[in-house]
Design brief:
Blueprint: E1 2-6, H1 13-24, E2 28-32, E3 49-52, H2 57-68, E4 73-74, H3 77-82, H4 86-96, E5 103-108, H5 109-113, E6 122-126, E7 135-138, H6 141-150, E8 155-160, E9 167-174, E10 177-184, E11 195-197, H7 205-216, E12 220-227, E13 233-240, H8 250-263
Parallel strand pairs: 1-2, 1-3, 3-4
Antiparallel strand pairs: 5-8, 6-7, 6-8, 9-10, 9-12, 10-11, 12-13
Helix pairs in contact: 1-8
């Protein structure tokens, strides 16, 4: 089989380990850097499957061109694009009845901040998810004005802050396999801490994660869940093809998924 990796970071631990397993099994792994001048789809027959790790506009456009050639892409360009828009993501979750954090789209941050006095605390996030985007808890008007000065033109969504333990449940799925860990929330006053193992999930959370994947047509994805004060799960974010670092069995699951999609 020929497996293509669409990425600007082929040394990423998950991709590197999965590629090593595939090569060891006799498969050919091809790297496509969407930021390279030579990133056009290869001449001739496309690979049997492509793994889309690059979420930049060039990466998504390359994935679309490969899909038009008939190549399967994991995750699809459409599914990846959907998960970059927190407004659309929240709307779809709401219609499906998922326990997703209430999300309001308010436009450019400075314009919104100048005309409101919300019930604090609130969580302000970039509408368009990307590396180094805006995710911040705001506790008062002084904090909101400061944030607006730093990100005046940033299109944002606003979520009511849900009281919780300060720890995110990081759930990652590769196909039907679900991996999990605990990580202190970046909104915590202590700041983000190390990732800790989570050997057992609350009942129903793995199935909830799989429902997210089915809803957004994702094969490799992450779901950030917090436990509210009564223990109920609340989804606060979904990511297409996240890093999934240091999870035993994840490289094997990704290699198996690539081969399954290639054969399919």
């Amino acid at each position: 089989m020929r497996i293509g990796l669409i990425t600007d970071n082929p040394g990423h631990p998950l991709l590197s380990a999965a590629a090593g397993l595939l090569r060891a099994a006799g498969h050919r792994v091809e790297l496509l850097d969407p930021g390279s001048p030579a990133a056009d789809p290869p001449a001739g027959t496309p690979a049997d499957v492509y793994l889309l790790k690059a979420h930049t506009p060039p990466g998504l456009e390359l994935a679309r061109r490969l899909e038009r050639l008939g190549a399967p892409v994991v995750n699809s360009a459409a599914a990846t694009t959907l998960c970059q828009d927190r407004t659309l993501m929240a709307e779809l979750a709401g219609r499906a009845g998922l326990p997703f954090a209430g999300t309001r789209t308010v436009g450019p941050l400075a314009r919104w901040a100048a005309g409101v006095s919300p019930a604090f605390p609130v969580v302000v996030k970039s509408r368009h998810s990307r590396r180094a985007d805006l995710v911040a808890r705001v506790d008062d008007m002084a904090g909101l004005r400061k944030l607006a000065d730093e990100w005046p033109d940033e299109p944002v969504v606003v979520q009511d802050f849900a009281p919780n333990s300060g720890w995110d449940h990081k759930l990652w799925a590769i196909g039907d396999r679900v991996f999990a860990a605990l990580r202190r929330s970046e909104l915590s006053p202590e700041g983000r801490g190390p990732t800790l193992p989570l050997p057992r999930l609350p009942q129903g959370w793995a199935e909830l994660t799989r429902r997210v994947g089915a809803l957004y047509s994702l094969d490799v994805y992450g779901v950030d869940i917090i436990a509210t004060t009564d223990g109920s799960p609340l989804i606060v974010d979904v990511n297409a093809f996240p890093g999934i670092r240091d999870q035993p069995g994840a490289p094997e699951a990704l290699a198996d998924l690539a081969l399954s999609r290639a054969k399919g």
